[in-house]
Design goal:
single chain; mainly alpha; 434 Repressor (Amino-terminal Domain); 4 domains
């Protein structure tokens, strides 16, 4: 079988070392001898297409990556986590970071011939120098005043509206099943195509909170994130809370109740803003309206609540990718700008699944 002689051996080595894998571990998973893998990484031999495909799947990298001279183009410390706990990234988390990075490069290719709104340009244009200015500009840019926000009865509907609006102003939000509870989201900061990845296993209300937590990281342009820095996490949490629960309106609503350490009251407030009870309690705690003991006792319950993934494969994939991104990919395909193979690369779907998804999403034949 023909060898893929254009493969960059440095890319093969970086892909393995990124996950801190040994040659023997990769050999077991890919059925390629460790000595053969070593020859590929040293540039003394080259893999076949079938072997490269197996390595691509295992390393969670697109095939084109292994032909690129631009390897190791980002650092682990450029990724900010919305964490549950203080664990270091697992292999699964590194795969998710890689997925977010791939989405970024997909966007670069999709818009290479077009001028796209940049989030950083929007911030500069409106001189967003502090949190209050950012809240004001975001609400205006997202067309989300308080009346519109509280008109949503379900957090998933508000979340999808915001994903579409954010896409238009240059923040790209995708989802995935993190398959663990070590983090509820992450972001890749980039001047042109910042990407946010949300954990689809968490509740929609938590995803909303995480969304604005990550946006604040992007606003600050943070690249060297200290994973255990509580001050940074608190700053992001405070911003997410300020955006989703407007101070003036919240103060008025709170004044209507005598006892705020009441689950029914907290649920009613949470429902008004389409946020979690935990988010409401976080704000009440900061306002000294509830006690630390009450917050901690209730926080355990709400902190662990999650949404299990499942259901229709195609609806799940559409949810992961988002309406705006899917529309862009398929409009580029129908316009003859990209091939069917590229559609598969951008959506991480095989041809048989692409046709079915397109039929469900847009109707008619693909």
């Amino acid at each position: 079988m023909a060898k893929m002689v254009s493969v960059n051996h440095d890319a093969l080595k970086f892909a393995r070392e990124y996950y801190a894998l040994t040659l023997e571990e990769v050999s077991i998973k890919t059925k390629i001898k460790s000595t053969t893998l070593e020859q590929y990484e040293n540039g003394n031999d080259y893999p076949t297409y079938s072997q490269l495909e197996r390595l691509s799947d295992y390393y969670n990298k697109p095939m084109f990556y292994f032909f690129s001279n631009n390897v190791g183009n980002y650092d682990m410390n450029r990724v900010s986590f919305r964490r549950i706990g203080n664990k270091e990234p697992t292999k699964r988390m590194k795969e998710l970071i890689e997925s977010a990075n791939i989405y970024k490069w997909n966007l670069v290719e999709l818009y290479k011939d077009e001028k796209k709104e940049k989030f950083v340009d929007l911030l500069r244009r409106f001189e967003c120098k502090d949190d209050n200015a950012l809240v004001h500009v975001l609400r205006k840019s997202l067309e989300l005043d308080l009346d519109k926000q509280i008109s949503y009865n379900h957090a998933d509907q508000l979340l999808e509206y915001l994903r579409d609006q954010l896409y238009d102003i240059g923040v790209y939000v995708f989802k995935d099943s993190f398959k663990e509870n070590s983090a509820s989201g992450l972001c890749i900061y980039d001047e042109e195509y910042p990407v946010i990845l949300l954990n689809n296993k968490t509740t929609y209300t938590r995803q909303l909170f995480t969304l604005f937590h990550e946006i604040y990281h992007i606003f600050r342009g943070e690249e060297d994130i200290d994973y255990i820095s509580q001050s940074e996490e608190n700053a992001c949490n405070n911003f997410a809370s300020s955006f989703l629960i407007p101070e003036e309106d919240f103060a008025w609503q709170v004044s209507l109740y005598d006892d705020l350490e009441d689950e029914t009251v907290i649920h009613a407030l949470a429902k008004r803003y389409c946020v979690s009870s935990e988010a409401v309690m976080y704000r009440l705690l900061k306002m000294h309206k509830i006690g630390e003991l009450y917050y901690q006792s209730q926080k355990i319950t709400y902190f662990r609540e999650s949404k299990l993934s499942g259901g229709n494969f195609y609806f799940t994939r559409m949810s992961y990718l988002g309406n705006a991104y899917l529309n862009k990919v398929f409009s580029a395909y129908y316009a003859g700008k990209i091939t069917k193979a590229q559609v598969g690369m951008y959506t991480k779907l095989k041809p048989i699944h692409i046709s079915k998804l397109a039929s469900m999403r847009f109707g008619g034949a693909y």
